[in-house]
Amino acid sequence: MSSFSGIEISTRALQAFQHQLDVTGHNIANVNTPGYSRQVVDLQASTPELRNVGKTFAFGTGVDVTSVNRIRDAFLDARRITVQSASAKVGQEQIGMQQVADSLNEPSDNGVSAAMTKFFDAWSGLAGGTGTTGAQTKVQAAATSLTQRVRDLYGSLQSQQSAQADTVTQDLKDLQTKINSIDNLNTQIRDQKVSGAEANDLMDKRQKLIDEVCGLVNVSVIANPNGTVSLHMGQLTLVDEAGARKVPTTFDSTTGAISDSTGTYPILGGKIAGEASNVQRIESYKSDLDKLANTLKTSVNAVYVGATNSAGVTGKNFFNDTSPQTGAAYFSMTAAIIADPSMIAASTTGRAGDGDLALKLSGLRQSGQASLGGKSPVSFYGDLVNRIGQDAAFAKSGNDTQTALLQQVSAQIQSVSGVSLDDEMANMLRFQRSYQAAAKALSMFDETTQSLLAIMK
Amino acid sequence: MRISTSYRYEYFSSVVSQTASTMFDAQQRVSTGKRLNSPSDDPSGATFSVKARDLRASLAQYDSNIFAAKQVLGTSDNALASIGNLLNAAKTTALKGANGTNSAQAMSALAVSVREMATNLVTYANAQAPDGRYVFSGQSTDKKPFSELNGSVSYAGDTADIKSEVSPGNAIVTNTQGSPLLSDIYNALETLQNKLASNDSAAVASLSLQAIDDLTLRVTLARGQIGSKSQTVTELSAQNRRRSDELSTAISNVEDVDMTQAISDYQQANTAYQAALTVSSQSSKLSLMDFLK
Known about the structure:
The complex is a heterodimer.
Chain A: H1 5-29, E1 39-45, E2 49-53, E3 55-59, E4 63-70, H2 74-103, H3 112-128, H4 133-194, H5 200-216, E5 220-223, E6 229-233, E7 236-240, E8 243-244, E9 250-252, E10 257-260, E11 263-266, H6 270-304, H7 335-339, H8 356-363, H9 377-417, H10 421-456
Antiparallel strand pairs in A: 1-4, 2-3, 5-6, 6-7, 7-8, 9-10, 10-11
Helix pairs in contact in A: 1-10, 2-4, 2-5, 2-6, 2-9, 3-4, 3-8, 3-9, 4-5, 4-6, 5-6, 6-9
Chain B: H1 5-32, H2 43-98, H3 104-125, E1 146-149, E2 152-155, E3 163-167, E4 170-173, H4 181-197, H5 201-255, H6 259-283
Antiparallel strand pairs in B: 1-2, 3-4
């Protein structure tokens, strides 16, 4: 037994409380750091010393710092990974689909449907008011606005689609950067673990990156015994103990998969999956719009080709049908009609008052077309509007659900790992008081030792 | 549950922004009066609205077709009414001529007045609708149908019908065939004039009186047809308007907000927003630090 053991106990206690105060300061300093997990100093009573005072007793020797730990719940981390991917996917879908729905401009007088109505109305008006140039000009104006709006809507869909596809390319680059950083952190964490210490702050940093990767693609995470993590997207290894892999950059928008020489890997979750699904959906809207434009062109031309205009010209098309320019993107009138509305014919006879063909063309409004699945053009377009609206509404409700789930999990994680200033204040008070007490004990031991030394003088 | 500091602020800010966004939506509905700003707001409602708007617009077009049809029907009716009057006058003249007591001079004076009638008839038969279209020339509305040369009339039009769409899937014939009716009247007047000029009162009595009566009947029948068509289109127009009003109500039900509901929603959202702000600002003032001196 040493006469100074009391001083030693107090010194170690002072050191331990100092560590606790330091960690509290670190926690407070990081109260606003995203992804930070609060840390605690783990203490335990140090190995007792056996003293023989007549009998043998075990006397305590003070406190030891065993480790500095971050408070984290592995179950919640795993749960968040799944929710994060799903949430990012529907979030992206919601943004994309809402944009498409808004760009339709329906229901209003400025959309394709109103233009289509005016187009058929104009033919009906031409039949009722044949021989007046006003009625012909009306047909020309209505057809101009119909073709213009169909082309504009198609162009808008096209640009939204390519914007989504371009973002995929960016996001794949982003994914590569994040994987490289995770690999980097893996190495540092493994090295630090070898030296015996937990790399708390590095692990927080890595966790945040993992969350971000989950926001991009679907990922499964495996924690390895040496402190590193492995990330896999289905069959594709993104990063493991051997290092970061090169992410395939060839993206197929029709299947939503990326591929390289080693294989094809479907992306099922995360923002990129949402982008892929947007690209595919917009593709199907575009194809419906193509169908509509082609059907209008073919059915109107099939009737109109029998028409004779006031100049006696017959056998002409109304809508431009120069192959291979088909589809909504090239929907337009023939040059002759664009140039001169009086070229527009209303009948087979060419008589000024004959409107039989105009009447037939107006009747196309109600007639079901085989190429539109038996629906009339207006009804077909109405159903397309419905489909886009449903897709957007569905994405929105999916997004609301997933956002709520993600918030729940985040709240739980925050509840476990987040820094609470109230907690830290209370702790600080506790550690400060403990420190003061230990200092008092030290001074007491010092005085005791002093009196002993005084005797020896 | 343990509440971490950053979560508390995150929560406050998410609650405040959520209530603010709800309030903004409510505000937007009140200020625009629309509940359907994008198809995603109500997909089936949007589809209904697209189809109902199509139908409503086509009804407006039918109405304007009916307006044009009415002008043609009105012009035709007016012309035929004048022609009917002209036939009455011709009959009075024929009765005078059939009497047999007239001097040759008086008979030729009657013949001159009938000649005048024939000229007027041609004018009436070339009646034009307000937009300049000839109403009695079949589909050849741009051609002057009747022209007179040396006591005979020639017809330049055709005998085809003009159809106009007046209600969904329903087209009616708007024109009245000028030929052969009007040519027949002209020829009858021409014959009457010839008989009067040749002082042949017996022929006037035996031929022309009956012929004029037959023609008057044909004119009356034609006017009757026009009258019933006018009535039909007037009814259809009222019907289309009624249907259009119904559609407007239905469209408004789908697209427009119920103002009372919208304003009360807005007030509710406003209260929620204020509450969120108040609670956030009050409770973020609370901290253990204030109690530790």
